[in-house]
Amino acid sequence: MGLRKRGNGSSQWEFILLGVSDQPQLEMLLFVVFLVLYIMNLVGNLAIIVVLWLEPSLHTPMYFFLSNLSFLDLCYTTSTVPQMLVNFRSTHKSITWAGCVAQLYVFLSLGCTECLLLVVMAYDRYVAICQPLRYTIVMSRRLCLQMAATVWMSGFSNSMLQTILTVWVPRCGRNRVDHFFCELPAMMKLACVDTSANEAEAFAVSVIFLLVPLGLILVSYGYIVAAVLRIRSAQGRLKAFNTCASHLAVVSLFYGTAIFMYLQPPSSYSQERGKMVSLFCGIIAPMLNSLIYTMRNKDVHGALRRVLGRLFGSKRT
Description:
By secondary structure, the protein is mostly helical. The chain has one domain (16-308): Up-down Bundle (Rhopdopsin 7-helix transmembrane proteins), CATH 1.20.1070. The chain has helices at 27-54, 61-78, 81-88, 97-130, 135-138, 141-167, 184-188, 196-229, 234-262, 271-295, 298-316, and strands at residues 14-17, 94-96, 176-177. The radius of gyration is 22 Å and the shape is globular. The termini are far apart. It comes from Gopherus agassizii.
């Protein structure tokens, strides 16, 4: 791909991220909002990771996978938000070709990884509730490490092909992306050739990484509900359901927005609606995940208070 200058001063080696450039009065407001959300996401997910690392009582499979989710959410927002904040305060809202490719690849990879990680977390809850006596044997440290490694490698290896197919679609000089960041449907809109094959591939991948994992999660919770209903005491049933409530909330947030984003062909993709859903999935949902697990999960909430108590207590002494 040769380097050719265009009349507007941009080149084929960069993309222009339009965002809300048609409404410049919103840029300062969005800058402040996204900065606050990003800081909240950093603080919330870092707090979860540090607390799970420092609190020995939380060194269990469930919280090992939660620390993976928190790290993933940190990466999710960091892959897009800093560039967005820079563009909000800049007159030339560009990203290099390499930066755009990296952003697209990382965003897709983390999305695929979260799909699979939520399945593993559902399996952990299934074993804990349906096979409690075998839980420590089944969910061994070795198996947990193997599942985590498989999830991360699968997500990043799958997205490599999608990224390559997307960035090498002929664009006939088009480089103005009507989005806040380099995201798959918006990038496909730049194509100047028929993209039916790319759309079919993207749809197939979405089915494999969205509908199949969601089906496995629903099956797991079907068994969990059946097992919980067999518990005689109301307190026991409530305790069992509470251990799954946070995970179910995160699954609903993630899969709801991801299915809306990717299980539709880019040809019927609505730019404005797609922007809002992408922002929710990539910025707001990761922040809400940390709030859900710190506020709804009594173990994490209690551990956070103990760790903060030890830190501030030691400072006073």
